[in-house]
Design the sequence.
């Protein structure tokens, strides 16, 4: 089987440009003993991948220049020489950014495509949903009746988080860029939504929206920059913050100055907790159990933005930084 794959042409800082990616075609080897060959059907592109393109080790190794990149993928087994895997089985792996692969089954998970659409395992039922869950439940410890501000509310983590927080009995204020996205957040159950692109003073707009709900107890940080500044100004005393990501900063050429109001952390006795989802698999079974219940009760909707074809994967990835997605950004092969 032939497979086209996307490779990185160089490590870089600053904005993501199309020339940093190239496409190549290879002949996949037949599976050896203990290996399977898989045709990918869905690929995930995620903001964290940007950090792997800089060329320095953070909590994860950088992508190698000239090699296919890695990322979440679901696909079907084409041929198998591994026990427990048969032709036609659906599997999830980190062998993304490519049409197919042959490899041992370590780190490969079988998924039930009768239970949920296979792409859901890259979204709300996968690490995306788990990220929202860990941030809200473990980092913030959100309680019924409290008010959460969910930033990037129309994105993958944000849209899951709005619905999880509502299912936990909390109030939610969402922020997102543009009318279609704010309407989506409302559809997901957000009590109030602010289009951050349409206001001059984000903090004032969010505080005004939160006033009827008793103010903001917790903030889910996906964005950084002006959102972080506004959150520090807007949280109530003893407010909590799950620091999940800061996408507004990922394409900076050099670190930008931080918020000018960090003293609010002291004055308001705030708690800020950064986290990486992969450190929290101990709560995976709680996540699956809660999510199943919420899904069966009709409390979780999903929406994806889909680019078609492996050659579109770089464009889909770049779209994360321009807000081209509503819900989870995916590539369908
Ligand atoms: N800690 C972890 O383990 C973990 C795991 C997964 C994800 N994350 C983080 O979670 C966040 C969301 O990830 P995701 O996969 O769900 O992506 P996403 O929210 O589906 O997509 C990114 C969204 O970010 C917004 N955005 C991009 N640039 C922005 C800017 N300069 N200012 C304001 N908003 C901007 C855009 O929405 P608008 O159009 O509304 O601006 C865009 O649609 C990211 O920060 C990511 O790094 C962390």
Sequence:
């Amino acid at each position: 089987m032939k497979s086209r794959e996307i490779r990185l042409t160089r490590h870089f800082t600053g904005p993501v440009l199309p020339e940093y990616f190239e496409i190549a075609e290879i002949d996949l080897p037949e599976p050896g003993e203990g290996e399977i060959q898989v045709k990918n059907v869905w690929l995930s592109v995620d903001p964290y991948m940007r950090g792997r393109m800089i060329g320095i080790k953070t909590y994860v190794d950088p992508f190698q220049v000239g090699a296919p990149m890695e990322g979440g993928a679901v696909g079907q087994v084409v041929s198998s020489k591994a026990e427990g895997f048969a032709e036609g089985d659906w599997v999830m792996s980190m062998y993304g950014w490519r049409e197919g692969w042959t490899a041992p089954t370590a780190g490969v998970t079988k998924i039930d495509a009768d239970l949920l659409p296979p792409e859901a395992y890259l979204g709300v039922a996968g690490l995306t949903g788990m990220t929202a869950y860990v941030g809200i439940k473990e980092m913030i410890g959100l309680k019924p009746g409290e008010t959460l501000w969910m930033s990037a509310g129309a994105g993958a983590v944000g849209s899951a988080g709005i619905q999880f927080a509502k299912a936990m009995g909390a109030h939610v204020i969402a922020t997102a860029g543009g009318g279609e996205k704010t309407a989506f957040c409302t559809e997901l159950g957000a009590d109030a939504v602010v289009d951050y692109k349409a206001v001059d003073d984000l903090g004032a707009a969010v505080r005004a929206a939160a006033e009827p709900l008793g103010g903001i107890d917790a903030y889910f940080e996906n964005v950084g920059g002006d959102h972080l500044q506004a959150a520090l100004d807007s949280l109530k005393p003893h407010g909590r913050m799950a620091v999940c990501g800061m996408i507004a900063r990922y394409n900076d050429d050099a670190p930008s100055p931080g918020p000018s109001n960090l003293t609010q952390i002291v004055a308001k006795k705030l708690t800020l907790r950064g986290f990486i989802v992969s450190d929290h698999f101990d709560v995976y079974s709680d996540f699956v159990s809660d999510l199943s219940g919420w899904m069966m009760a009709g409390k979780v909707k999903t929406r994806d933005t889909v680019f078609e074809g492996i050659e579109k994967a770089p464009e889909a990835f770049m779209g994360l930084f321009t807000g081209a997605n509503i819900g989870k950004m995916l590539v369908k092969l």
